[in-house]
Design goal:
198 residues, homodimer, Tetracycline Repressor, domain 2
Chain lengths: 198, 198
């Protein structure tokens, strides 16, 4: 019972922190915001995360990476043999979320990645991108690209989407992301048509 | 004399703020940081920028947009008829700056764009990207792409570079940006070869 309550307290703190990091970044998120958002008292936060904000943020980013993996794997599975459609769907979900949140909610990792953070927080950002890159790379390789080509295309795709999210937030418009989704779709289909084994 | 001193005080505040926004973003940059970095006293900051941090930040982002325009135009001019080489050079400068700053200094607009900012600050971010997109779009159009193709390729290019900067900071490695530069170079050369008027 005690264990279960403790685990759910920890999970609530992690969930709220992940949401705050996504919406406003690392510097703007204080422990008091996490307390307010999660309902977890400050003493309990320090019990679970003795190193404070950087430790909670690292755990939140690791949880985000896990959710991104599930989300992307589900998208890939829902478009068998069509990784490009999965990429387009990935963009479409972001377009919906940007619109629904009035351009507050973009990539859950990018803001913290760009802020000045070090150590475990930065490493957690890096690992989250490794997850996205590897799921997408595997899907492109399964569609017939060589390992090297699939890795390059995965990196190019994730970069283009992340950058389009930056532009969409800056311009308060989903148009950059929608247009980049279209260009990416053409690029990846042509790459697969030219490079993939028949 | 008074006017000149006042103008240079304003310029010093703007320059320091632009550097701080680039290195750490909006939320982490307090007025006291700007005072410390610029040497401009707080009273003088409020004299020049009565609305405070958001007004200084907007002015700093406008100055950044002007510098980005000059920088990109100079790169384009230094590679006559070779906009792709200008894009590669643009990436190479970022690679040098990331390395020299231990991955602190990336795009001077992206961090603030992703943070939760509104009003004039967000608009200043949007205008800075408009500048980059239009300089690059014009260079691609001059190389023979249709206006529509040039605009799409410019947006795709800027997005890929911005996203690669996010990944390079997250992974504390210039490899994502270097690899995206290579893929972008191939993509743009092939686009120009296929689409441009001879």
């Amino acid at each position: 019972m005690t264990y279960s309550k403790s685990a759910s307290t920890r999970a609530a703190a992690i969930r709220s922190t992940a949401q705050l990091l996504r919406a406003q970044g690392y510097a703007a998120t204080g422990l008091s915001d996490i307390v307010k958002e999660s309902g977890v008292p400050k003493g309990s936060l320090y019990h679970h995360f003795p190193e404070g904000k950087s430790e909670i943020a690292s755990a939140a980013l690791a949880a985000t990476a896990g959710r991104l993996r599930s989300h992307l794997e589900a998208l890939v599975a829902s478009h068998p043999g069509e990784p490009v459609a999965a990429v387009e769907d990935f963009c479409n979900r972001y377009i919906e979320q940007l619109e629904a949140s009035q351009f507050v909610l973009g990539c859950p990792v990018a803001t913290v990645s760009l802020e000045y953070v070090e150590g475990t927080v930065q490493e957690a950002c890096g690992r989250a991108f490794d997850v996205i890159l590897s799921v997408l790379g595997a899907a492109l390789e399964a569609r017939g690209l060589s390992k090297r080509r699939a890795a390059a295309a995965s990196l190019f795709t994730v970069s283009a989407i992340e950058g389009a999210l930056v532009l969409s937030k800056a311009q308060a418009s989903t148009e950059p992301l929608a247009r980049v989704r279209n260009t990416l779709g053409e690029y990846l289909r042509s790459l697969i048509a030219n490079e993939a084994a028949p």
